[in-house]
Write a structure and sequence with these properties.
The protein is of the alpha+beta class. It is 15% helix and 40% strand. A ten-stranded antiparallel β-sheet has the order 15-14-13-24-23-22-20-19-18-17, with helices on both faces. Strands 8-7-10-11 form a four-stranded antiparallel β-sheet. Strands 2-5-4 form a three-stranded mixed β-sheet. The longest helix is centred in the N-terminal third of the chain and has 12 residues. The chain is globular. The relative contact order is 0.13.
């Protein structure tokens, strides 16, 4: 539940921290580091959009018993920037005098049907590089999204969530929580601190990775839902040839998930809204598709559709090693590498899985078909409709993460990336094709769950029809979705499109 006490706490915080006096010894550094120094001393976290703040510029931090407000104004040296304090956060924002004047004349109308926008980009605090596929969740609810491949995210939330917090979490990092009221209708940069697990914090003992994996498999019924539930998911897929998009499709799905141990339970998919873009300027006789479509993403729920590296009967074919201890949501987790044994020549998986050290829940995995044997997997990995081409798979990679809601873990994000080399028989040069499938959970419903009417379901591998539409960045309305990466967004605007729309 969101705390209703939150509003009363804000007033006290705002009236005090900016008036508190601090002393800093003279130091020349970047604005980014200067704000971090102030943060460490005050205990308050800064949030801002790097587009309005030159965080790399050199500044001089020096103060002798000065008010924090004056210290910040001196550092920023920009009268267009203002401060807003909520809880333990200080937002630096660009003041809009026209908007402020209009708000003074006309009271803000609360429209329950309207949404609150929270937009941002997540970075590693040390390297300052964007973090992809980070969990962005609303505390006390089952709603959320993920960052895209460039670290961006957007949340569209009802006004009832205005006093909730957003929680940013990623394997290997300390979770970061900030109030929605602070960042509503703002674009903010968020920096996650790497969370190094000290060996002194761990009881030194012999750890058998096979035993950990075996226990994780046996503990699935304890860690994952024993009753059916329904997911609202955002799905997208795309195919590129030599870096140019041939097709792109995206959709909002309702997904019925049977209980973990429901042997004859079948997942159902109901389409809410979707569109498809085909580059009609590209003439191509070979259509590359991934087998399974949406069902391929559903199968990446590895806690339910267990791959061979999580099957008790297949464990003997793998070599497991404990590669690291990492942190997730302030809990320790085992990072366990796996690869097929030397005497096994089938095309199996290799990668890393993360298992919570206490609950032994599978938190996620990054894996791929073993590159040394991938050619043997060509027949069941690739669909092709032309006998005139030689298709060579180069890489099949997978990524999946889970998020805990209540007592159980639910799939949060799943992604599959494929790279192929295709050469027409008799030709010397090959073309590079790449394709991806991706699904992010936007909401989890565990109450009043029932199977969908069969007439309203779709076959997972047949989703998009061939109907005309026009690319529209506001197409998704109030639905949460994954923001297209900049390169993808520009490509979709340029190509001659033919798009399907279903509502």
């Amino acid at each position: 539940m969101c705390s209703l006490l939150f509003v009363s706490l804000l007033v006290n915080a705002q009236s005090s921290i900016l008036e508190n006096r601090y002393t800093f010894e003279a130091k020349r550094t970047s604005l980014y580091d200067a704000l971090n120094i102030i943060s460490q001393k005050t205990g308050y976290f800064f949030i801002y959009d790097s587009k309005i703040l030159e965080s790399d510029k050199r500044v001089k931090l020096e103060a002798r018993g000065a008010k924090l407000e004056y210290i910040l104004k001196d550092l920023l040296n920009n009268p267009k920037l203002g401060f807003r304090v909520f809880s333990k956060h200080i937002l630096i924002f660009e003041k809009d005098e026209n908007v402020a004047a209009a708000q003074r004349k006309e009271p803000v109308r609360q429209d329950s049907a309207a949404t609150i926008l929270v937009k941002g980009k997540v970075f590693d605090e040390v390297s300052r590089k964007p973090l992809q596929y980070v969990s962005v969740a609303i505390e006390g609810t089952s709603e959320g999204t993920i960052t895209n491949g460039e670290g961006y995210f957007i949340l569209k939330l009802p006004h009832s969530h205005e006093q909730c917090n957003v929680r940013i979490s990623h394997i290997g990092y300390k979770p970061y929580t900030f109030p929605i009221m602070l960042a509503r209708d703002q674009n903010v940069d968020l920096y996650l601190k790497p969370d190094i697990v000290s060996l002194q914090e761990i009881v030194i003992r012999r750890v058998d990775p096979v035993e950990i994996v075996t226990s994780a498999i046996k503990n699935r019924k304890k860690n994952y839902s024993s009753t059916p539930y329904c997911l609202t998911t955002f799905y997208r897929e795309g195919v590129l040839k030599n870096g140019s998009y041939l097709s792109y499709a995206e959709a909002i799905f309702k997904v019925y998930k049977p209980a973990l141990d429901q042997f004859f339970g079948v997942e159902q998919v109901s389409e809410v809204k979707s569109r498809k873009i085909v580059n009609t300027e590209q003439s191509d006789t070979l259509f590359v598709k991934l087998k399974g479509g949406i069902s391929a993403c559903l199968s990446l729920d590895i806690a339910k559709s267990t791959p061979d590296f999580l099957e008790l009967s297949e464990i003997a074919r793998y070599r497991y090693t404990l590669s690291d201890m990492v942190s997730y949501e302030s809990h320790n987790a085992y990072a366990i590498n796996f690869v097929q044994k030397a005497d096994v020549d089938d095309p199996l998986f290799t990668g890393t899985m993360y298992i919570d050290a206490d609950s032994l829940a599978i938190l996620g995995a990054e894996f791929e078909i073993n590159p040394a044997y991938i050619s043997k997997a060509a027949d069941y990995l690739i669909s092709k409709n032309s006998k005139k081409h030689i298709v060579k798979p180069e890489r099949f990679t997978y990524n999946v993460t889970y998020r805990k809601v209540g007592d159980y873990y639910y799939i949060n994000h799943a992604k599959c990336d494929v790279q192929l080399k295709v050469r027409k028989k008799g030709r010397l040069f090959s073309s590079t094709y790449s394709a991806f499938l991706e699904m992010a959970t936007c909401n989890i419903d565990t109450k009043n769950v029932s199977k969908f009417d069969k007439q309203k379901t779709i076959r997972p591998h047949v989703v998009f029809l061939d109907l005309p539409y026009t690319y529209d960045p506001s197409f998704w309305g109030d639905f949460n979705y994954i923001i297209p990466e900049e390169k993808l967004n520009e490509a979709l605007k340029r190509i001659n499109t033919k798009i399907e729309k279903v509502e």
